[in-house]
Design goal:
The protein is built from seven helices and nine strands. The protein is an alpha/beta fold.
């Protein structure tokens, strides 16, 4: 499938399949709740569970968040773009209830040139979740995705994902890291790095 078809799908609040650095993802316009609800329906994901957004660069992170602690800023500078999802306080610019939990939002900048190119050519962030049926096996190539998701969705094929594993998810409290899910970036790496900041 072509970039143009995926762009058109996203701009008309439809769902598309995209590669990331970790696993393939389902995405849509994060500013449109109807599109996000459609994404949840296709994925068969419970509506009570939030999903992350993907943005094109670090400036976009600061555009949608507030009260970012110093350690979070350092982590963002070092590890993004990359296989990391950061949970930060939202500033209210995104009002999509499928993305907000306890006044926080999860944000990624995937290290994938095709997805970053796509993000550069739209004027909204993407709601992004793994391209599979809820609780089924994650997909690292497009053939695996199409076996699970029978809907005729536009997609970008970028072969095998770089890391073939989920992103690490972290949050911050009192200028310290809390690891919510260990993925590509290991706990030891993050703790070693943060300990260096204070040594």
């Amino acid at each position: 499938m072509s970039y143009n078809k995926v762009l058109e799908a996203l701009k008309t609040n439809n769902i598309a399949i995209v590669p990331t650095d970790t696993i393939y993802g389902l995405c849509c316009n994060a500013l449109n709740e109807d599109a996000t609800k459609k994404l949840f329906y296709i994925k068969q994901r419970p509506l009570t569970k939030t999903i992350a957004i993907a943005v094109k660069d670090k400036n976009e992170i600061y555009n949608y968040t507030q009260n970012i602690c110093p350690i979070a800023k350092k982590i963002i500078d070092v590890f993004l773009p990359g296989p990391l999802t950061v949970i930060l306080e939202t500033n209210g610019k995104i009002k999509n209830n499928f993305l907000i939990h306890n006044n926080t939002i999860a944000i990624r900048i995937p290290e994938n040139r095709k997805l970053l190119y796509l993000l550069q050519n739209i004027d909204f962030p993407l709601a992004l979740t793994s391209a599979n049926i809820h609780n089924n096996t994650n997909c690292t190539n497009i053939a695996q995705v199409l076996k699970q998701l029978t809907d005729k969705l536009e997609y970008i094929d970028d072969g095998e994902c770089k890391y073939k594993q989920e992103s690490t998810i972290i949050s911050f409290q009192d200028n310290k890291i809390s690891i919510q899910r260990e993925g590509v970036i290991k706990k030891e790496t993050l703790l070693h790095y943060t300990s260096q900041l204070y040594s």
